[in-house]
Structures are given as C-alpha cells and as structure tokens.
Amino acid sequence: MARAPPRAAGGARRFAVVRLPAAGRRGRTRGGAVAASPPTEEAVQMTEPLTKDDLVAYLVSGCKPKENWRIGTEHEKFGFELETLRPIRYDQIRDILNGLAERFDWEKIMEGNSVIGLKQGKQSISLEPGGQFELSGAPLETLHQTCAEVNSHLYQVKALGEEMGIGFLGIGFQPKWALSDIPIMPKIATAIFANSPFKEGKPNGFLSLRSHIWTDTDNNRAGMLPFVFDDSFGFEQYVDYALDVPMYFVYRNKKYIDCTGMSFRVPVTGLKTPFRDGYVRDLAEEVLKLAKSGLERRGYKEVGFLREVDAVVRTGVTPAEKLLNLYETKWQRNVDPVFKELLY
C-alpha cells in the first residue's frame, strides 16, 4: 500500500515538462503533472514552472487500487546462429521483426528506415543494443495469463528463427563472444535468478555478471539505492534522488536529443551473501513464503509457478552454479554446450 508523502517544504526548484493533450490527461493536472506515460506524437513543450510537490504528485497519481493491480513480463533472450553460435546481425534481426509483423500481425516501430521494434495491443518487442530480443508483456491479471503470453511469443520467434537457422538463448549474459564480436544495433530478485556465470567462453568469477556490470555502467543511475529500505521511505525521497541524476536526453519534435550530463551486484557468494543478521538466502525464504501465501489467497492455483524458485532457495544452488558445475564436469570446460542447454 503506497503511503502519500508529506508536502515538501520550500519547493524552490522549477522544471519544464512535457504536457499531454487534454484528451489524454489523467490524474492531477495543476502544473501539468499527469500519470506516467512515454512521449507522444502530440506532446508539446510546457513552459509553466513545476515544483517538487508536483513531481511527487506525479508519482502518487500512478497508485492503483488492489483490484487494478496487474502482472507485467519482461522476457529477454540472445539470438545466435545455430551453426556457428555467433551473435545474430541486425539484418537477421530485421528479417525476424519483419516476419513477425507479416505473419503474426505486429505493428512495426521504426527509427528512420530501420525497424527497431514491434507492438501489438499492450505488448511490445524491443531491440537491445547487443541484439537481444525483449518482450515487454501486457498488464495481465494472473501468472497463467503471463505464462501463456510468453509461450506464444516464444512460439512466434522460434517459428521464424528455425527457418533462418537462428536460435534464442535463455541466459543472463552473452556466454561466449567478446564485445567486439557483437554487432551493435540501431539505437539497454537478482540473487535467486543469478544466471550469467560465463564471459568470452569461460567462467567470469561472478554468478550474475549481468548485475555486476551495472556497478560500473552508469554510476549516476545504476545500482541499489540504500534509502529504499528505510522505514520512512516514500515518493518524496525518490524524487529528491531523481532530481540529482544527470539527464540522458530530452524528446523534442519526434527526436531524442542527447543531454548526457556526464551497486547493486550479486557477488561470487550468491545466496550465501551476508545480509543484515543472516544471509540473502534467509531473506529469499521469507520472500518465498510471502509469495506462496499471496498466490494461494488469489485463488488461481499459481503456486506451481514458484517450483523452480523454491528449488533454488531450498538447495541454495543458483542456476549459475548449476551451469558452472556442468562446465567443469560434463562439458569439460567448454562453454559451447550452453547454447544447446538453454536453447528455447
């Protein structure tokens, strides 16, 4: 349950924001603070000053009653050539995106003459800088629905991929190839799901290199925010933090304009990482109990979806540790079998 923050004192800072047309406006309107939404084609620059209180109210406007809570899935995977195991190029990804649009009725998202994504209803498929495919799912009511959505998405991309000799890998970090080998695209619960132990064909020293990377990717906006664990944490504290983060860009005249002003990681110990008076595994056990209890009360028989997570917490062995064991034993210190092991 969201706690409305106290009214901020002072409010000396002033900002210019984007205002949506009246027909698309929701929530509070004074100063143009509206419910969160991406830039729209109709957006115009607003010149009325906006206070810190308005920004707090903007976040409050996104709170929903329990009956409107939904589940949203992000599903990211690496595409690779089945024959060579090499990362796929943009022209191959372009053909998959075009094929999905033509065969499964997705709408293309273009940047100039390049297709960079797809959308269908409240779902979208985006293209990450390293060529990863990411499904951003629709807001759904049950885990059964989001499971069906992901399975439908995988069926579609596999149907196109198999015709082109392309597979998709379910792992948290590119396991074999160096950054220089990865084509750059046109215009980026961690402990339990730690699953990126390989880099450039060998163990990288982490169970979740994917998380470690964020400790030195953009230190202005990456990593864990310690204050979110304070009992007094609320929207105002987050706004104070956000105001000090340098900008990336502004959106003007249908273009992104560069305005760059310029840690959280799961270490080698994974679930054995010390946390407060115990370990991350102890916290995971409590979170899992809450998740099971909540799903049981929902009445949709969704607890089965926690089976894999339950096994990780019960044994203390993460997916990354299982992969490392295979690497040292069955795979005889060769990372290539991961492309078959984790192929969708």
Automatic annotation (TrEMBL):
Its EC number is 6.3.2.2. It holds the Pfam family GCS2. GO terms for molecular function: ATP binding; glutamate-cysteine ligase activity. One of its GO terms (biological process) is glutathione biosynthetic process. Keywords: ATP-binding, Ligase, Nucleotide-binding. It comes from the Eukaryota. InterPro entries: GCL_bact_plant, GCS2, Gln_synth/guanido_kin_cat_dom. Transmembrane segments: none annotated. This is glutamate--cysteine ligase. It comes from Eleusine coracana subsp. coracana. The lineage of its organism: Eukaryota, Viridiplantae, Streptophyta, Embryophyta, Tracheophyta.
